[in-house]
Design a protein that fits this description.
The structure is a homodimer. Chain A is mainly alpha-helical. Chain A has a single domain, classed as Farnesyl Diphosphate Synthase (Orthogonal Bundle), CATH 1.10.600. Helices cover 74% and strands 1% of the residues of chain A. Chain A has a two-stranded antiparallel sheet with strand order 1-2. In chain A, helix 3 packs antiparallel against helix 4 and helix 13 packs antiparallel against helix 14. The longest helix of chain A is centred in the middle third of the chain and has 28 residues. Chain A is globular, with a radius of gyration of 21 Å. In chain A, 54% of the residues are buried. At the A-B interface, helix 4, helix 6 and helix 7 of A face helix 4, helix 6 and helix 7 of B.
Chain lengths: 362, 362
């Protein structure tokens, strides 16, 4: 492989983009907060969302959106593209808040999930059951607000009708894809099988398209990308996105909770139909399969049980195969990227994000 | 009061509008179904949503949207306004599906609610707890899809930038208002008080603005309504909407389940902070208050307990007062309507809808 091409145009400022997106999000929520306070509306919902959005997160989707814009020749004033990028992050807050309800997750980014925090907040004067239910109800509403507000953040009225016609259908498709992917994910949970293809389909819709391909496409469409650029971005995005999900599966089981910010039991307790688990079930001996069938999806799984599952995931070679699949996909993505002859600044930024997305520890 | 003015322009075709909206919705969902089937996506989510949307509903919001359009002088080709109206009904499906999860409602429109139906559908091979949780998760996702698709139904690309600038902010405001109103509603439930003003504030945001004012405004904005028309529509809408919610409160407690399609215990079991309940708590003697405090919000409330509550609601005069408040609001709305000098067809249709919304039995 040739040495990285030195950038000929100014580099994509990833740290600056991140900051601009965060400023856009907090400014938006602060305006919402003032308006709600003046009308006697529940500011609690907004402060919970603000805390969630500012408590971490890789901002991968906004960064990829800006990279897609650069890849298609976007340059100059970034106000409009930053708003579109911030809208994707707001949408992602919606997706995570609802996902955590569905996965009954207690912790995210090292802190209680939104439904847990709200249950705690409303505990006084209520039974535990009533408080937990209220935590779920209000978290669903906070997620709904984030979804509605992701729309409000879109710079719809500032776009030309040509841009609108290119961008809005991609936003629509992205939303349906991630919701469908999540639907496949929750209905398959509890009954994982050795069907690796099915697990890859979930990963493709829930993650590869949603997290990588569509943010790139949306950014590119803002800059009026021709079909060839969009196709090159897809060919790069899908393997990166699958590698991202494979890394997520591995971290969800073998990651250190103090680094990932989430417990390493949740995926196993929910019995998620991940590629990692499907690979193990496909290769398991009868006695290994017996262990997996008995323990995966058990809501009372303890650390000892989780260790038994981990040993089977390792012994079957599933863990090594998942790592191998990540390398294959990363290599393929980087090869596509070099061949695509995008503006060098975009190529350099995408190379960097590929590394961050697939070799991460959190 | 003078006799109804005979229409000088063709009447607003309410039945035809209803049919056109339904055709738009089912056509949209059928296209989604074909696309999902061809890509291996979960068609179950779509068929559940289609069944929900076609199993009843008054279509009040779409009809009011078209009335708002006529009120502002809209006429001729109805394709675009019907799409906007259908979008409101799709949004309403989202709101109801999520509300039923939050209210733990078992029945809606005489049939199991979406989360109950989905729990039943996924019962096999799962514990009751796991199936119920999956029912909730998938219902939240079906609601999320409906919210995303309400956006997709909006005829955004067919609107002029002037129309976009008028309509989109109203859609944004409507969404936030109903979500805020719902947030107030769920956090107040279980602890109703004699604070009638607070109950009216919930009714105003959750229902009056969402169900009546904003649909009228959105339709009017599509026809480029001047401020005066929007103000007249607000002055009409808010009392009608409050009356609508008061009727809803009464039907939720005193209605016949075989006509309303929902059980008459749910609101009482949830301990909803309605105007009806607040009026009773405000007027209750110590022994009546003791009954209400002991029984409202009790998840195990039975028919005998509900009858005891009903007797207190009647004996305190709360029921009669709620009926009286409906009459006052309806009269006020009709007076505003006569004075507004809207196109006679719009006036006639709004008069008809006012009757249907406030004197209904389901």
């Amino acid at each position: 492989m040739s040495a990285p091409t030195p950038p000929l145009t100014p580099a994509v400022d990833l740290a600056g983009t991140r900051e601009a997106v965060d400023t856009c999000l907090t400014g938006f929520l602060d305006r919402k907060m003032r308006a709600a306070a003046s009308e006697g509306m529940p500011t609690e919902a907004i402060s919970v969302l603000r805390r969630f959005l500012t408590s971490g997160g890789k901002r991968l989707r906004p960064l990829l959106c800006v990279c897609g814009w650069c890849a298609a020749g976007g340059h100059g004033d970034t106000t409009t593209i930053v708003r579109a990028a911030a809208s994707l992050e707001m949408f992602h807050a919606f997706a995570l808040i609802h996902d955590d309800v569905m996965d009954r997750a207690a912790t995210r980014r090292g802190a209680p999930t939104v439904h847990r925090r709200l249950a705690q907040h409303h505990r006084e004067g209520r039974s535990m059951t009533a408080a937990r239910h209220l935590g779920v109800s209000t978290a669903v509403l906070v997620g709904d607000l984030a979804l509605a507000w992701s729309d409000e953040l879109l710079p719809t009225v500032d776009l030309t009708s040509r841009q609108l016609g290119a961008v809005l259908p991609l936003i629509d498709v992205m939303r349906s894809e991630v919701m469908y992917g999540q639907y496949l994910d929750v209905t398959a949970a509890g009954h994982p099988t050795g069907d690796v293809e099915y697990a890859l389909r979930i990963a493709r819709y829930k993650t590869a398209k949603y997290t990588v391909e569509r943010p790139l496409h949306i950014g590119a469409a803002m800059a009026g990308a021709p079909l060839a650029v969009r196709e090159a971005l897809s060919a790069f995005a899908l393997p990166v996105g699958e590698a991202f999900q494979l890394r997520d599966d591995l971290l969800g089981v073998f990651g250190k909770p103090q680094i990932t910010g989430k417990p390493s039991l949740d995926d196993l307790r929910e019995g998620k139909h991940t590629v990692l688990v499907a690979l193990a079930l496909e290769r398991a001996t009868p006695s290994q399969r017996h262990i997996l069938d008995a323990l995966l999806g058990n809501p009372d799984l303890d650390d000892a049980g989780a260790d038994r599952i981990r040993r089977v995931l390792t012994a079957t070679g599933a863990r090594a195969e998942a790592e191998h699949m990540i390398i294959i996909r990363r290599t393929q993505a980087l090869r596509v990227l070099e061949a695509a002859r995008l503006p060098p600044a975009a190529t350099a930024a995408l190379r960097k994000l590929t590394g961050a997305a697939t070799a991460r520890t959190s």
